[in-house]
Design a protein that fits this description.
Distance between the termini: 24 Å
Number of helices: 3
Largest sheet: 11 strands, antiparallel
Number of strands: 11
């Protein structure tokens, strides 16, 4: 989302159109682009950040960014699907939408750059509530189905923290924590709390300065209401087999990216 040329360090930027939410929010130098870095959803982004996206990962809306010295403030209203996890976005931005705000502070520690980000989001959309699905299943003596209890103007919210820190010119560390109440169906993946982090190292020490190796982890969980729903045989868009034996999801990922020739890399 950048054009070549000089820009003022202190500036206002407004963007309008169709794009991916993560093009603007939850940035991180060491873990954000699954094409060149980590590929797991809960490592390259905040796992419990249920951001606005259609089935291809895109949304529509407006983003305002204010850059002032070491601080950046971003705010946006973005379209959500008219039906969860489908392709049709609500282009009116008045019925099914997500609001988010993110504050970033860049700093130096030990002479090396770093940043801390705090994000809050709120959703207002046509969604189903897990407790309502559980209640309906008990009343009708049937398997609960979240799609049968969807209502307009349902709300959810969440927050996340994101940090990055260079240790030296070659080594950097990163981490994320995110949370949402987990009471309504998700717009992204089934995670209501997530802790992740890792390291990224350039290959300068073995005479491969353009290579990079990374090691990351994530620990993800879901809220009690969704656990109960799944234990009763309910299905979510991404998980559910009727016999949930709950345990946190634990992920470990590593990669090596090698420069082969000019702009050709193999990972």
């Amino acid at each position: 989302n950048q054009l070549a040329g000089n820009i003022d360090k202190n500036r206002l930027v407004f963007s309008y159109g169709k794009f991916a939410t993560l093009d603007f929010f939850d940035q991180n130098t060491y873990s954000h682009d699954p094409r060149t870095q980590f590929q797991n959803f809960a490592i390259f982004s905040m796992g419990a950040y249920s951001y606005a996206a259609d089935t291809k990962g895109y949304t529509y809306g407006v983003v305002a960014e204010w850059y002032q010295d070491d601080w950046t403030l971003k705010a946006a209203r973005l379209a959500m699907p008219t039906i969860p996890n489908t392709a049709q976005l609500d282009y009116s931005l008045t019925r099914d939408y997500a609001n988010q705000i993110e504050l970033t502070h860049e700093h130096e520690l030990w002479g090396q750059p770093g940043a801390i980000r705090a994000l809050y989001y709120q959703q207002h959309a046509y969604m189903g509530n897990y407790q309502n699905a559980i209640n309906q299943g008990m009343q009708t003596n049937s398997t609960p189905d979240i799609s049968n209890v969807r209502l307009a103007a349902q709300s959810s919210w969440g927050y996340g923290l994101n940090f990055e820190q260079a240790i030296n010119n070659d080594l950097g560390v990163f981490g994320r924590w995110s949370w949402n109440p987990g009471t309504t169906e998700t717009q992204t993946v089934d995670i209501s709390r997530s802790l992740s982090g890792g390291i990224s190292l350039k290959g300068s020490q073995w005479s491969r300065p353009n290579d990079r190796v990374g090691l990351g982890f994530a620990i993800n969980g879901i809220a009690q209401q969704e656990r109960t729903y799944l234990q009763m045989g309910g299905m979510a868009p991404f998980i559910g087999d009727g016999r949930l034996s709950y345990k946190t999801e634990q992920i470990l990922e590593t990669f090596y990216s090698a420069k082969v020739y000019k702009e050709l890399f193999i990972s």
